[in-house]
Each structure stands twice: as structure tokens, then as C-alpha cells.
Write a structure and sequence with these properties.
Shape of chain A: elongated
Oligomer: heterodimer
Number of strands of chain A: 0
Strand content of chain A: under 5%
Order of helices and strands of chain B: EHEHEHEHEHEHHEHH
Distance between the termini of chain B: 14 Å
Number of helices of chain B: 9
Strand order of the largest sheet of chain B: 3-2-1-4-6-5-7
Radius of gyration of chain A: 33 Å
Largest sheet of chain A: none
Largest sheet of chain B: 7 strands, mixed
Structural class of chain B: alpha/beta
Helix content of chain B: 40-55%
CATH superfamily of chain B: Spore Coat Polysaccharide Biosynthesis Protein SpsA, Chain A
Shape of chain B: globular
Strand content of chain B: 5-15%
Structural class of chain A: mainly alpha
CATH architecture of chain B: Alpha-Beta Complex
Number of helices of chain A: 8
Largest interface: A-B, 14 and 18 residues
CATH class of chain B: Alpha Beta
Number of strands of chain B: 7
Radius of gyration of chain B: 17 Å
Helix content of chain A: over 70%
Number of domains of chain B: 1
CATH topology of chain B: Spore Coat Polysaccharide Biosynthesis Protein SpsA, Chain A
């Protein structure tokens, strides 16, 4: 089954020369700067490679021939959804691992995100599992993906509210401790001042007597 | 221990009360000369802390706003760690009159209780409030009396005196927002006891109440929920009356 709207775009692809040339030029610019940055060591190699890939994707996208577009449009829409979801899950996993590596994110929080990414990835790799899920729940693939993501987002949000409550009570304990310590410090300073002035005045008196 | 001059300390949680705190401190000095006063400045934006220091009070300066529960708990912690036998808690807005503090002390020393509550409803007349607040407070009072097995008429009163075992318990466990009714239920579960005495509440001299019309509704719902949830929790025997009284 071919989507008529998608087919219309596919037919128009041939004539959209100006747009495609623009996209291709942007892609070449990104390729150039990514290559130059990596060469001059302005950026890390990983960043350079990522930008290089992004430029490559744009250039390839701009130079897709008409036949390929028609082929893509005529494939099952589920295959396309799987490819997109696969990319999204990889992105989630990459961002999560990168955040852990840079110690921005604690592992216990990252775990939920890793699970989310993995579940989507599994659903992409094993469409049979999705078919089973659909047979049980009656949900279409895209709907099921949305439902799973939504459930995980709710769980993550819930986890955050629990973590926040714990943080608030800890913050209260710290603030109270700080305030009592500060009060004690001020009292000690005052006592010390008093002692010093007393000993000074005593010293003066004894000095006068000895003279 | 070394810092206290009296066996009783007066704890005043204050949030932006620079207008009323000075006269309140003056009154306390008048009625209870020589008593230690601690003002807990709950992250005020005005000069509350400075005014309190100038008027002879010790100040616990919380670095951020914790709400009434957190501020009062800081005071309990201070009172416990500095070896005070009793702590009187009163609001910073001048609603509670310092002349009645000696009634609290007398009731505490006479009865075998851990907390004495000043109630504005024990004597007829005097206090006026909106009908929604009236219903909320009286509904709460009935429910609280039931689960505490003690008569409570003014569960939201912040005019109280506590003894040392209770200071220990509360410095470790105290509800954060709208704490008073929940604290009564918590202490009863741990085996502590309280009683009420009549007290007159004055009109606020400055500032305005922290709880508005919708706030009252939220207050009542939140406190009911907290009271019910607390019933479902196991009793923490580390803080029970017997354990604490034997330890300190």
C-alpha cells in the first residue's frame, strides 16, 4: 500500500533542483569545516567525525536519485518507522553513555534511560516481539512505541519527584546544621574577643604596677 | 551547655518579620527577664536577622527558606544540642502574647506531659476567623482528637512548650510544611503526651498570614493525607518516649 501524499512528494523530488542544490552546498560546507577543524585540532576527533557524518548525510540526501525516492516511498511504512526508531534508540543510548562518561549523570538515573533505549532497539530488531505485543494489546506499531515511551517518561518523572523529595529533606538538614554551626561560631568569637580584651587590660594594669 | 543562661529557651521562627520582631523581643524581655531567645531567620529578604540580634536574641540564620517546619526544627536542634530542658515556641508576628508564656511553663511543670499547647478555642469568644478556616480547623481538631485519644481544640497552634525528650525526637523527625497537627499525631504514636491550656491570640501587628483562602483548603487536605499516611507507617522505636527518656 502506497501513501498517495508520499507519492506526490516522490514525484516532485525530480523538480526540486534548487532546494537540493542548497542542501548539498550546506552539506559540503559542514564537511569542509569539520575536516579543517579536525585537521587543525580545533575540536576533538569524535566531534569532528560526528559533524563529518552529518555533512555526509546532507550531501547524500541531496544527491538521492529519483528512483531511490520512489523505492523508499513504495516500501512498507513499518520498515521506515523501524529505521527511524532504530536511529532514535541509538541516539538515546549514545547520549546516555556519553553523559555517564562525562559524569554528568549518575548511573542510577541513567539506568532508566538505557532501558528505554534498549526496549526501543529490541522492538526495532525483533518485529516478531512487536507482533506479539500487537496481538495481545491490539495496538499498532507506532502507537505501541508511543505508549512504551510514554510509560517510561512517566516512570522517569516519578523517579525524579522521589529524588527531589529526598534532596529537599537533605537540603533542610544541611541548612539547619549550617545555621547552628554559624551561631556557635559567632558565640565563640564573642567569647574569644571578651577573653582577649580582659587579658589585655590585665596586662596593662600589671605593667603599670611593675613600673 | 556552656552557652545557655536559662533552662528554657524561646524559639521564634521568623520570615520577613522585621516590623514586628523588635517589639515582640522587647515584650519577652519584660515578662521573662534573663531568658534565652533564639530567632530562626528562615531566609528572610529583609533585616529580620539584624533586628533580632540588635534586640538581644541569638539568631539561627538559615541560608535558604525551608518553611515553618524546617525553621522550627532548626530551633529544636539548637535547643537540644545546647542542653535546654524546655523550649517555648511562638510565632514571630506577635500573635502569641509573651505574658502568657509563664502559663505554659507552669502547666508543663505541673502535669506529666511532654508538650503543652496554647489553644485559642478553649475559652469562648475572642478569636474570629473566616468560616472556611473555622470549618477546616474544627474538622481537623475532631479527627486529630480521635486518632490521638486526647482532646485537641486548636491543632494548628504554634504556641507551645516542649520538654527535652520531645526536643530530641522532633530535632530528628518533624514534618516540613504545615507541621503542627501532624507533629501531634507523630508524637502520640511514639508514646509522648500533651495537653492544652487556654491562650489568647492577638491580631497580627504587621505582615499578613501565610495561608490564604485556597491555602486553607490545601492545608486541610494535605494534613489529612499526612495524618492518614503516618498511620500506615511503622512506629520508629528509636525515638519512642521510653527509649529517649532513658537515654538523655
Amino acid at each position: 500500500m502506497i501513501d498517495p501524499l508520499a507519492m506526490r512528494y516522490a514525484v516532485g523530488w525530480e523538480h526540486a533542483v534548487f532546494q537540493r542544490v542548497c542542501i548539498g552546498l550546506i552539506g559540503f560546507l559542514i564537511l569542509f569545516f569539520a575536516g579543517r577543524g579536525t585537521w587543525k585540532k580545533d575540536c576533538s576527533i569524535i566531534t569532528g567525525i560526528l559533524w563529518f557524518l552529518a555533512g555526509l548525510v546532507l550531501v547524500i540526501f541531496a544527491s538521492i536519485p529519483q528512483k531511490v525516492v520512489e523505492l523508499v516511498v513504495s516500501t512498507e511504512y513499518q520498515v521506515r518507522i523501524r529505521v527511524i526508531m532504530g536511529f532514535i534508540s541509538l541516539l538515546v543510548l549514545y547520549v546516555t553513555f556519553e553523559s555517564i562518561r562525562r559524569t554528568h549523570l549518575q548511573e542510577k538515573y541513567a539506568l532508566l534511560w538505557v532501558v528505554t533505549g534498549l526496549v526501543i532497539l529490541i522492538s526495532v530488531l525483533f518485529p516478531d516481539a512487536v507482533a506479539l505485543f500487537r496481538a495481545v494489546t491490539g495496538m499498532e506499531y507506532a502507537t505501541a512505541i508511543a505508549a512504551v515511551s510514554f510509560t517510561f517518561l512517566v516512570m522517569v518523572a516519578f523517579h525524579f519527584s522521589i529524588a527531589m523529595s529526598a534532596m529537599q529533606s537533605k537540603q533542610a538538614k544541611i541548612a539547619q546544621r549550617v545555621a547552628t554551626l554559624e551561631a556557635r561560631l559567632l558565640q565563640m568569637e564573642k567569647a574569644l574577643d571578651k577573653q582577649q580584651t580582659e587579658s589585655e587590660s590585665k596586662g596593662e594594669v600589671s605593667g603599670k604596677i611593675s613600673k | 551547655m556552656k552557652n545557655r543562661r536559662s533552662d528554657t529557651v524561646i524559639l521564634i521562627p521568623a520570615y520577613n518579620e522585621e516590623a514586628s520582631i523588635a517589639s515582640l523581643l522587647g515584650e519577652i524581655h519584660n515578662f521573662l527577664p534573663g531568658v534565652d531567645i533564639v530567632v530562626i531567620n528562615d531566609g528572610s529578604a529583609d533585616r529580620t536577622a539584624d533586628v533580632a540580634r540588635e534586640n538581644g536574641a541569638e539568631v539561627l540564620d538559615l541560608p535558604c527558606n525551608l518553611g515553618v517546619g524546617g525553621a522550627v526544627q532548626a530551633g529544636f536542634l539548637y535547643a537540644y544540642e545546647n542542653g535546654y530542658e524546655y523550649a517555648i515556641r511562638c510565632d514571630g508576628d506577635g500573635q502569641h502574647s509573651p505574658s502568657e508564656m509563664k502559663n505554659l511553663v507552669a502547666a508543663m511543670k505541673a502535669g506529666n506531659v511532654d508538650l503543652v499547647l496554647g489553644s485559642r478555642f478553649l475559652e469562648e469568644g475572642g478569636y474570629k476567623s473566616t468560616w472556611i478556616r473555622y470549618c477546616g480547623i474544627h474538622g481537623l481538631a475532631a479527627f486529630l482528637s480521635f486518632i490521638c485519644r486526647r482532646k485537641v481544640t486548636d491543632p494548628t497552634s504554634g504556641f507551645q512548650i516542649l520538654n527535652r525528650p520531645l526536643l530530641y525526637f522532633f530535632s530528628r523527625m518533624y514534618p516540613m510544611d504545615y507541621p503542627e497537627p501532624e507533629a501531634l499525631a507523630l508524637m502520640r504514636r511514639e508514646g509522648y503526651d500533651f495537653c492544652e491550656i487556654p491562650a489568647t491570640f492577638r491580631e497580627r501587628t504587621a505582615g499578613k498570614s501565610t495561608i490564604g483562602k485556597w491555602g486553607t483548603l490545601y492545608y486541610v487536605l494535605k494534613v489529612f493525607l499526612a495524618l492518614l499516611v503516618d498511620r500506615a507507617r511503622p512506629v520508629d522505636v528509636r525515638y519512642s518516649r521510653e527509649n529517649v527518656a532513658g537515654k538523655i
